[in-house]
């Protein structure tokens, strides 16, 4: 009799223990990191407007991860969006470039911040005449649902080099914040070439070697007609933007440093956007297999960038690399002077 009671008691304890563990895991999944359980996330914005000094509980901002995902999938109605005070806002900041500078990595990392909501796809509103003709409301409806106190950010790298874009963005919002992420110009040009080469190979098409495209065979000088080279002359494109926006509305992100030391770069962006510091080393972990940092939203949800990121570059003739770096050097010096940020480029 005593033995049966002991067995029954053990079974009860096991059931209770399972329930307790299950409840704990549920709470962990819901709460996540909650930025180390700080109760309030003040979103003090320089952007102005009715919500510039608003405060939103961090629990609500963290909960938006799941809630907003449902809206993006189209699983909720506009009435439900209104019930949760969700809106589709025009971006208060745009990552305007540079192609192959790390725009996707920057956007995904900024999305770690509970006060930031990202547009998942490149909208190409300002650089595409057909899209631009559809009007600003079409653009707004392409934005994700968010709380009014949050900042919506989109990225389209083609914006930086497209002539019409600065004026078009200025007409939408003359005080918008503009993020430019750059890499060492020669490395960026080779990365640009590598992406195009991979696309050609997938279609079983041949493509010229990088050296033949980057160097004019007739003059043996750098071929400035080659788009990958032109894109890396950052100062030429920036000067066009400065006709519409003061330099204070730009923030330069070091794309090379974002690869090796992402946290300091992200903290600078937080400061530029006037966001409370929330992204920490906890949110970033180095994946030795993939060779770059991945993202940790909480102890349940981690994310790495797509496998297409971090492509292996083809070997390039060292003399061509040297010639390109010598060519870019004066443009780089001017870029440092204009932006006030010196980068460790050769």
Q: CATH homologous superfamily, by name? A: P-loop containing nucleotide triphosphate hydrolases
Please report which band the strand proportion falls in: under 5%, 5-15%, 15-25%, 25-35%, 35-45% or over 45%. 5-15%
Q: Give a count of the beta strands, DSSP E runs of length 2 or more.
A: 12
Rg, please? 24 Å
- Count of discrete structural domains: 1
Question: Under the CATH scheme, which class?
Answer: Alpha Beta
Average pLDDT works out at: 83
The CATH architecture comes to 3-Layer(aba) Sandwich
Q: Counting H and I runs of at least 4 residues, what is the number of helices?
A: 15
First-to-last CA distance: 84 Å
Summarize the structure.
InterPro entries: NST/OST, P-loop_NTPase, Sulfotransferase_dom. With 346 residues, the protein is an alpha/beta fold.
How would you sum up this structure, described in words?
The strands form 4 sheets. This protein has a 5-stranded parallel β-sheet. The N and C termini lie far apart (84 Å). With 346 residues, the chain is an alpha/beta fold. The protein is built from 15 helices and 12 strands. The longest helix is centred in the first third of the chain and has 30 residues. About 10% of the residues have low confidence. The protein has one domain: 3-Layer(aba) Sandwich (Rossmann fold). Strand 11 and strand 12 form a beta hairpin. Helices cover 45% and strands 13% of the residues. The protein is globular, with a radius of gyration of 24 Å. Helix 12 runs parallel beside helix 15. The relative contact order is 0.14. Its EC number is 2.8.2.-. Keywords: Disulfide bond, Glycoprotein, Golgi apparatus, Membrane, Signal-anchor, Transferase, Transmembrane, Transmembrane helix. Belongs to the sulfotransferase 1 family.
